[in-house]
Amino acid sequence: MQARLTFVGDILIVIFCVAGFYHVFEKAGLPVVFVHNSLIVEQVTQDSSCFNVNDNLTAIDGTPLASIDQVEFYLDSKSVGQLVTVSLERNHQPLTRTLPLVRYFSARYLAVQLIVASIFIFLALFVSVKRKDDRAAQIFNWVTMSTALIISATWGKMTIEPNGLGHVVRAAFHLAYASAGVLFVHFTLVFPSARYVRTLRALRVCYVAALAFAAAATVLFLEAARDFNEARFELYNNVFNLMRLFCVVCIATGLFIIIHTYLTAQEEPERRKLRWILAGLALGPFSFIALWVIPQIFTSRGLLNEEFIVLLMLSVPVTFAIAIVKYHILNIDQIFKRGTVYVIAFSAVLAIYVGVVSLSPLLMGTLTVTSSLAVSTVAAVIIAVLFQPIRSRTQNFVDKVFFNVRYDYREAEKKFNEVIAQCYDESSIVTALTCSIDTLIPNSETRVLMENEKLTALLNGHREPAALSESIEFGAKFFVVDRWQFNVQDAAIAFRIHSERNGTLGVLLLGPKKSGFRYTLEDIDLLDSFCRQVASVLDRVRLHHTLINEQLEKDRLKQLNELKSYFVSSVTHELKTPLTSIKLFTELIEETPKLKPEQRSEYLGIIKGESERLTRLIDNVLDISKIEKGVKEYRFARIALNDCVKEALATMRFQLALHGFDCRTKLSTKKLMICADKDAVMEIVINLISNAIKYSSQRKRIIVTTSKCDGGCRLDVQDFGIGIAPEDRERIFAPFERAGSDIVRRTAGAGLGLALVKHITAAHHARVDLASKPGAGSTFTVTFPSITSSAEKP
Ligand code: ADP
């Protein structure tokens, strides 16, 4: 309904504008310019022998006239070319002259008027069509249309055909003049958003006042036009001036409202829209009021030529239309900033040039043609060298002083590019991204989620980010989601980190901005560019990792293969030795029926010992395999270390005896309670003793000691055997590793015993140390943590 009303109104106004233009075109006048506020001829504009400069006009066609306005009004009822008789006073001598009237406005003025009014009408229609449902846009349409009417239907010929049209046009002109100001105030109250509801209601009074002014001016105009006399005209003219004043007051109020709204605006987009408006106002109505309306009230003449004022007015609808429809495409800050920067930089460069050129005669004396050419070249070179630094310094200065710029888009993008190029793994990329965003666009929380299926599914298939509608400024491209769809607390906007090669790699999630403003178009562009950069670096890093992993996997498989074959050969060998002796002694017992009982029990003992060795080996292999698979479990309990040692020694008693070992124990008098898996601790003791047996060929003595030590309990297994070379002391604890000596090579073994000891001690938060002297023996020391400290650990 409102749109239809606007449309009908617009058509009517356009018709009035055309009629108005016609009646301005037909306006008649005298070929003279009068001195301010008087009817003394200052200048004769066309060849006319009737007038001399300083003639004083007193009457036209016998009607006495006292002011320029009266002359204008009186002649508005005449036609161009019509003969009038003017009464003059020349050197205090009255005289009369008859002359034809000329066209009041110049062709140039009429052309400017036509162009400007057309642009106003175009912008009014453009904004109203583009923003059909926007109330501010519709009011803008009315303000702009009224202004177009004021421009094109200013005082013109009132007696144009068809009869009465001139009067109707004047009435429409009055209405436009009276209501334009109020409409402007109305606009400022609803743009960028409707505020001051009460004031809006109070505005009705202003509309009534505007109507009253228009009606009064029209009635008085008709009176004065019907039967011209000075008193009637002055009454009309006074009301008309009052109406002008009313318009000025309204425009000033509107300005005040806009400045107030700008200062109290919370949101950046609002500010940007208002900055456009303010820019237009600074050029348009401000100059109109300052250069035309106010001087006219006092001197009945504007300061600037009317054409220029009208041209200046164009800035208003243009900037207003930009503010309403396209403020985000044309960033006013950027335009002003660039303009200011280049003007300052250019002035500085010019100053340098002038400085160099004017200083050189002082330094070099009179210049010849060649030397002045050289000076100009030097100045040009200096400028060429200095321009860029001057420009960037000026840019920084302008940014800092005039614009509270939070970040420079290009600079931020470049810096991030540099930072991210240094990242070689996913976590440093994520850290670089979050840190950069937190500095540039502080928000409640920046998160990068690499594997969030729900968010990935939400964003997939969309190029633009997902966001809550209230967190993004108007005009940005995004798809609206509800808070719950994010499925993550306090999120306002989400970008996908997407690579062409690997699809969606992750999601960048930001909370609301700490400033309380919405995300701007620049923010979105910057974040989008960050995500693209991150995706490409992630691609690179992932490819790199895949290649490394493939290489590692290859190496591991190779090593595993080597280990397998080694394991098979050494374990088979290890299995074979005890099995051979078991077989040998079993056959001996079988084949020798008359075997002495002591011999028989000796053989049986050997068989038993060898089977125990076999069992130990198999246990070790199984344990190592469990450890490798990560399934080895320990049953921790409070146990006495001494008891473990005793049980292990009992198990090894036969072995020790078989190889003729003297095994002494120096057990602590205390029980030495530890938190450990008993079987595992026994395994440690058995492995260490069996090694001591294996690697002590000469002095067959073993000392097993338990004692209390700093922070725990300690177990020492000391032998006096071959010892271990310093270079082997570390590696023998790794699986399948053995010392390099010949004796070791000749001794059966799979290289698993110490690896097992190492693992068990680690699982018990214990430590295994080795002290050895080649040829003199070795001492393996296992230190268990005290029960309290070990109990605290998991
Ligand atoms: P294995 O004894 O089956 O070779 P271990 O893991 O038990 O495997 O021992 C690894 C290596 O450590 C042995 O091959 C040997 O070279 C060295 N070693 C272990 N204990 C002793 C010791 N008490 N005296 C000398 N060398 C030892």
Structure report:
- The protein is an alpha+beta fold and 794 residues long.
- Strands 9-13-12-10-11 form a five-stranded mixed β-sheet, sandwiched between helices. Strands 15-17-18-20-19 form a five-stranded mixed β-sheet.
- Helix 3 packs antiparallel against helix 4 (135-152) and helix 18 (521-591) packs antiparallel against helix 19.
- It binds adenosine-5'-diphosphate.
- Adenosine-5'-diphosphate (ADP) binds next to helix 21 and helix 23.
Provide a quick synopsis of the model.
61% of the residues lie in helices and 13% in strands. It has 794 residues and is an alpha+beta fold.
How do the strands and helices of this protein lay out in sequence?
Layout: H1 2-25, E1 28-29, E2 32-34, E3 41-44, E4 56-60, E5 63-64, H2 68-75, E6 83-90, E7 93-100, E8 102-103, H3 107-130, H4 135-152, H5 165-190, H6 197-226, H7 230-264, H8 268-283, H9 285-299, H10 306-313, H11 315-326, H12 332-364, H13 369-402, H14 409-421, H15 426-440, E9 446-449, H16 453-459, E10 466-467, E11 479-480, H17 483-486, E12 493-499, E13 503-510, H18 521-591, H19 597-629, E14 637-640, H20 641-658, E15 662-666, E16 673-676, H21 678-694, E17 699-709, E18 712-720, H22 742-746, H23 753-763, E19 767-773, E20 777-785, H24 787-792
Parallel strand pairs: 10-11, 15-17
Antiparallel strand pairs: 1-8, 2-3, 4-5, 4-6, 6-7, 9-13, 10-12, 12-13, 14-16, 17-18, 18-20, 19-20
Helix pairs in contact: 1-3, 1-4, 1-5, 3-4, 3-10, 3-11, 4-5, 4-11, 5-6, 5-7, 6-7, 7-8, 7-9, 8-9, 8-11, 9-10, 12-13, 14-15, 14-18, 15-18, 18-19, 19-23, 20-21, 21-23
Bound molecules: adenosine-5'-diphosphate.
